[in-house]
Amino acid sequence: GTGRLYNFAAGPATLPPEVLAKARESLGDWQGLGYSLLETPFSSDEFISLMETTRNQIKSALALPDDYQVLLLQGGASAQFSLVPLNLLPATATAGYVETGHWSTRAFEEGRRYARARLVASSRTSQFDRIPPVDHWALSDDLQYCHITSNETANGVQFHADPSCGDIPLVADMTSDFLSRPVDIRRYGLIYAGTQKNLGPTGLVIVIIRDDLLDRARPETPTVFNYQRQLERQNRVNTPLMFAVYLVHLMLDWLTEQGGLTSIHARNIAQSRALYRVIDEDDFFQCRVLPGHRSMMNVCFGLARPQLQQRFVSEAADRGLLNLTGHSHAGGLRASLYNAQPDAAVAALAAFMTDFRQRYG
Ligand code: PMP
Questions:
Q1: Ligand 1 in contact with 77 (CB < 6 A)?
Q2: Which of 30, 103, 137, 254 is catalytic?
Q3: Which of 315, 314, 320 is nearest to 342 (CA)?
Q4: What is the annotated role of this protein in its UniProt record (predicted)?
Q5: Which tens digit of pLDDT belongs to each residue from 306-336?
Q6: Using one digit for the tens of pLDDT, what is the confidence trace for 216-261?
Q7: Are residues 72 and 36 both part of a single domain?
Q8: What is the pLDDT of residues 180-229, one digit of tens each?
Q9: For residue 1, is it within any domain?
Q10: What is the dihedral of CA 86, 92, 96, 101, to 10 degrees?
């Protein structure tokens, strides 16, 4: 192939070259200590200050009120499927789940091992083509929390407004749209997000929790995963994911340089619209998600003639447009457009799609 390579993977995903360059520098002499970040004690002033800075960057990006705390934990997003119920409610209590695709189903299936979990809404019967409207959710006062997946990475469905659950604490898996847009934080009791989409590293999960939810952990909750214990010990009950935290710090600097959440949101809207416009032009490409519910992060689509799919993926790769195969559970094609996806990548993909349709349509 010729030209630049563009990576449309769903995560781990493309990162800004300038951030990768800075990350490489940290493998030399970090902050004049005489050794690299990887060799730095986690109890050093330098690392403690990096951790504090990173947590404050998250607070300021989201304009978190003082009664929200930020944790940087290990185990990725999937571990939170079990750690949220362990930290928030007794085994005999009930939690609500909204099922909108592959990842919310995973959260529900795991959550029900630790609590009485109940689906309050599901779009399964329409093949996850929409977000069920909040006024139709079967919410009841016995729910200790209500769990949503704000963006379904595999199905390409996204909440475009922060739902209100009244007094029931809203818990959101924001793994694949965290820091992609401003959020109405007061609607949420707890947010968690794996960082391998918009912020870079795998294995790290950011947990944002409102103070009133902090004293509810079951006694058997592992101490390293107990939100309150970790907050009391400045997130150093165990050795933090130091390099991952550094990468998140660099990505938050980068986000600020891009103009913050309002600017990045506008870019994400424009990029996703450019692809949906090509898809909707006629019946050659198809998107089963209803307009108004479509993801700005993961554009999931297919071909009216699925036998062309392999050709699409391999011709795209020849032109440097990589990793366009959909999630194994959803099938089809997927272009992920996280914060770091350059406009040029989207323009190149839109041009390729138009050309492909002309040749095979
Ligand atoms: N939730 C969502 C919405 C995701 O997209 C993913 C990963 N694709 C996960 C959870 C699981 O993340 P991890 O592999 O880091 O556990």
A1: yes
A2: 103
A3: 320
A4: Catalyzes the reversible conversion of 3-phosphohydroxypyruvate to phosphoserine and of 3-hydroxy-2-oxo-4-phosphonooxybutanoate to phosphohydroxythreonine.
A5: 999 999 999 999 999 999 999 988 899 999 9
A6: 999 999 999 999 999 999 999 999 999 999 999 999 999 999 999 9
A7: yes
A8: 999 999 999 999 999 999 999 999 999 999 999 999 999 999 999 999 99
A9: no
A10: 60
Q: How large is the ipTM? A: 0.99
The Cα–Cα gap between 316 and 323 comes to 9
User: How far, in Å, are 25, 126, 329 from residue 21 at the CA level?
Assistant: 6, 45, 35
Q: Which of 257, 280, 295 is the last residue of a domain?
A: 257
**3-class secondary-structure state, position 123:** coil
pTM, 2 dp: 0.98
Helix (H, G, I), strand (E, B) or coil at 335: strand
CB of 178 closer than 6 A to ligand 1?
no
Within-domain flag for 10 = no
Among candidate residues 257, 277, 302, the one where a domain is terminated: 257
- Binned at pLDDT 50, 70 and 90, residue 3 comes out as low
Residues 135 and 244 in one domain: yes
How many separate domains does the chain show? Answer: 2
Mutate to test the pocket of ligand 1, among 78, 82, 99, 102 (most ligand atoms within 8 A of CB): 78
Domain CATH code at residue 218: 3.40.640.10
